[in-house]
Design a protein that fits this description.
By secondary structure, the protein is an alpha+beta fold. The chain has a single domain, classed as Electron Transport, Fmn-binding Protein, Chain A (Pnp Oxidase, Chain A, Roll). Strand 6 and strand 7 form a beta hairpin. Helices cover 17% and strands 36% of the residues. The chain is built from 4 helices and 8 strands; from the N terminus they run αβββαββααβββ. The protein has a 6-stranded antiparallel β-barrel. The protein is globular. The longest helix is centred in the N-terminal third of the chain and has 11 residues.
Length: 200
């Protein structure tokens, strides 16, 4: 079955977007990100805790690589770290209100090495206010005095609390609500990406 070509937002210049052709869902995701504009890509990240219970929170995807990895910054002192070390799989859901589409990712998660060039590069692009949060008291612990929460930091190097999560999807679903009926597609990574059109 031939998949329908999704509509392109009027504010997106297709010639300005570099689209690797080896990962079939990546051009669609990048098109949605471009149509969203300059705001951050905020997604829901779900992990599993030591009791087997799901835990979900909103995080910022700082980068989508050409090989389809999602790069997410995290505080190494928070619950996500231990959960990923124990069970290095996760699910991510992204909703783009402007284009009325949803992406669901599931896959394996690695924590970038402290000397990772990508970790340093992403740190250098953070605002001073965001950098400051990694020098705050550990998240999830009893509330500290207000003076412990600095407002900004120009630290050139990331502290140990700053970690970079690298999620490599093995399953991706795309739901487009502007079609009738809604268009739902799933890609599954085997030796290559297999595609399946699904009921919404």
């Amino acid at each position: 079955m031939a998949l329908r070509r999704r509509r392109v937002g009027m504010n997106v210049n297709r010639r300005d977007i570099v689209w690797p052709m080896t990962i079939p869902w990546l051009p669609i995701l990048r098109q949605a990100i471009a149509a969203q504009g300059s705001g951050p890509l905020i997604v829901s990240l779900a992990t599993v805790d030591s009791a087997g219970e799901p835990q979900v929170r909103s995080v910022v995807v700082r980068r989508v690589t050409d090989d389809g990895e999602l790069r997410i910054t995290s505080d190494a002192r928070g619950g996500k770290h231990e959960q990923i070390v124990r069970h290095p799989t996760a699910a991510v859901c992204a909703w783009f209100a402007g284009t009325r589409e949803q992406f669901r990712f599931s896959g394996t998660v690695r924590i970038a090495a402290p000397d990772s060039p990508d970790r340093s590069a992403i740190w250098s692009k953070l605002s001073s206010a965001t950098r400051a949060t990694f020098f705050w008291p550990a998240p999830g612990t009893p509330k500290a005095q207000s003076e412990a929460f600095i407002e900004s930091s120009d630290a050139p190097l990331p502290p140990a609390s700053f970690e970079l999560l690298q999620l490599r999807p093995i399953s991706v679903e795309h739901l487009l609500l502007t079609e009738h009926p809604h268009c739902r597609t799933r890609w599954t990574l085997r030796e290559t990406w297999a595609v399946e059109a699904m009921n919404p």
